Amino acid sequence: ALLYACMLSLFGIAWLLVNFFYADKLIKSNVPVEWLSAIIIAYSAIQMLAEPIINRAVRPGAKLSRLHLTVLSGIICGAAFAIFGALSSVVLVISAMLLIPLMLSIPEYFIGELENKIIDQLELKDNRAASLSMMNIGVNLVQVVSLFAASVLTKIGIGWCFAFCGISIIACSLAMLLNRRKSTADMKEQN
Q1: Is the overall model pTM greater than 0.90, yes or no?
Q2: Which of 83, 94, 133, 166 has the fewest CB atoms within 10 Å, measured from its CB?
Q3: DSSP assignment of 91-115, as one string?
Q4: Is residue 189 within 8 Å of 37, Cβ to Cβ?
Q5: 158: closest CA among 31, 64, 21, 29?
Q6: pLDDT in tens, 34-85
Q7: What distances in angstroms separate CA 101 from CA 65, 97, 113, 134, 142, one per listed residue?
Q8: Segment holding 87, helix H or strand E
């Protein structure tokens, strides 16, 4: 559950970076800040592709499990986020700005779904709202700590914030896979 809270916190921070630092990235790339409204409208439209992508990925007979889809989409999202901080080409910056919100939405959806499965496994179905609220409090606490780290990184440069957040998303995605393998190995060992 802590790993999911960390991932959801990272997505919250990633959204803050998108919402607050896209304008700075545009300015640094010599793109008029007036383009930001058009970029927001465009990435909002592109972001609507998340549902059809998810539905196609989880259809019956799909080759990857939901966990593997979560990890894979988290790694892709984290890599795009980390690389975005270093981009300077106007075409690449705008392309990344349009795709990163979509990339954030996909693993974020899967994490939310896994969070609900944890509640079911812990037999807390009757208290789902309270359980989700408690998990959300944990997410907010992790987010506060992460925001302090991000504030230090902004002194170094915004690109480093994107890189740190992206690398953290990748690390948590891999930790989810390793944690699942360890849990599976522990279960086999007990039998």
Answers
A1: no
A2: 133
A3: HHHHHHHHHHHHHHHHHHHHHHHHH
A4: no
A5: 21
A6: 888 999 999 999 999 998 988 888 888 778 788 888 889 999 999 999 999 8
A7: 23, 7, 18, 26, 21
A8: none
